[in-house]
């Protein structure tokens, strides 16, 4: 994946931005700016380019990738998602409204089933007002196209229940610490997947359930998993790169300095390892 900064999206005070930091810049949903990241969670879609108002802002985004937050002014934008290096093959084009704050635009569904669409999530807002000190905050997004509605348990206690494909739960406050998560079909006791996660205090997370519970024949690297991403400004809480095909290597979208972009991406990936949990435990047929 590579990033192009320009008139529409501008890189802010993030790890991959080489410009001097501006103390007055908006990095945490202040009075003037929004921050948006893109996530590619469509398991049958190819690598994609993302265009905003006709300008390419992300290039060669692979399945499982979560981009850094990119700053822009609040407003209405025309967002297009096209096959990488093939602007004529457009999977989606439509208007997206963003206000002040933090957002994730997730590409979900399947191209083959004609369910591909962007899902816009507001990040880190609202949070529970009655949370105890040192709490962590977590929500669950069900973006696995072939999984049924699910219940999510933490250490055998229900965390969220009856979450269907495309649904995103509210944020919950939980004590910081280590948890064993289990995924079960809604209302059933049978566990279809389990994962270990670590939640830090005063940190906000989204757990994205992605991939195929039962991959189509011949499909690899698209198994059901849960990606735990930190929601918030990158200088404090770097967003996670998810697995799948990984970020790979690509030319910068503006045709600029590939080595600098690659080095920045590697630095960000190392930082993300402290905040991302890659779930890769057992998965059984539902």
From TrEMBL:
Boundaries of every DUF4397 domain copy: 34-130, 136-220
Cited Pfam families: DUF4397
Ranges annotated as biased composition (Basic and acidic residues): 259-273
Residues covered by region (Disordered): 1-31, 229-286
UniProt cross-references to InterPro entries, sorted A to Z: DUF4397
Regions of compositional bias (Polar residues) in chain numbering: 274-286
Biased composition range(s): Acidic residues: 19-31
Protein name: DUF4397 domain-containing protein
Lineage: Archaea, Methanobacteriati, Methanobacteriota, Stenosarchaea group, Halobacteria
């Amino acid at each position: 994946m590579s990033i192009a900064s320009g008139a529409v999206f501008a890189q802010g005070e993030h790890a991959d931005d080489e410009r001097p930091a501006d103390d007055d810049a908006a990095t945490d949903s202040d009075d003037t700016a929004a921050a948006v990241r893109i996530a590619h969670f469509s398991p049958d879609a190819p690598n994609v380019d993302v265009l905003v108002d006709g300008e390419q802002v992300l290039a060669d985004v692979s399945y499982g990738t979560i981009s850094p937050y990119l700053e822009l002014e609040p407003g209405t934008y025309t967002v297009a998602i096209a096959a990488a290096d093939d602007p004529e093959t457009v999977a989606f084009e439509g208007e997206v409204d963003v206000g002040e704050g933090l957002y994730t635009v997730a590409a979900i569904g399947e191209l083959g089933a004609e369910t591909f669409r962007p899902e816009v999530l507001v990040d880190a807002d609202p949070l529970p007002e009655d949370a105890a000190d040192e709490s962590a905050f977590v929500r669950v997004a069900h973006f696995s196209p072939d999984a049924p509605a699910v219940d999510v348990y933490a250490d055998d206690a229900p965390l969220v229940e009856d979450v269907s494909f495309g649904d995103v739960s509210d944020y919950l406050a939980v004590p910081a610490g280590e948890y064993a998560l289990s995924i079960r079909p809604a209302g059933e006791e049978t566990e279809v997947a389990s994962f270990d996660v670590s939640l830090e205090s005063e940190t906000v997370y989204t757990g994205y359930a992605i991939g195929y519970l039962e991959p189509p024949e011949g499909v690899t690297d698209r198994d059901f998993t849960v990606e735990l991403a930190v929601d918030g400004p990158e200088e404090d809480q770097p967003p996670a790169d998810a697995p799948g095909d990984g970020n790979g290597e690509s030319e910068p979208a503006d045709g600029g300095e590939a080595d600098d972009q690659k080095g920045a991406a590697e630095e960000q990936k190392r930082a993300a390892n402290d905040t991302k949990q890659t779930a890769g435990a057992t998965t059984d047929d539902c």
